[in-house]
Structures are given as structure tokens and as C-alpha cells.
Amino acid sequence: xLDVVSAYGGGVWAKVAKVQLLSALTCIFAxxxxxxxxxxxxxxxxxxxxxxxxxxxxxxVNA
Length: 63
Description:
Blueprint: H1 2-7, H2 12-50, H3 56-62
């Protein structure tokens, strides 16, 4: 596919934007499905363990 873009006169940025970025989107979305909840959980646990009396983590636990 990169050869087709080159054959039609596409530059480096056209290859990146129209071929490589589009093919990487599935991996990016799959990784974000895992990374977003993990980051949220890590933020709550870090705040809860860092200061056990104040913050967002204890507010969720006490709710």
C-alpha cells in the first residue's frame, strides 16, 4: 500500500497519515480499552494509599 501512495506521488506525510496511521488505529483503540480503566484504577489506588484520609479514593470507598 505504501508503494501505491508513492506511485501516485504521495510524500512521506501522506504515507504516514493515510496508510500507517489508519492501520495503527485498531491497535490504538484496543490498547486504550485496557489502558484507560487501568490508569483510572491506578490513580484511585495511588491517592488512597498516598493519603488515606483525603482525596478521591476514600470518597469512592465511603460512598
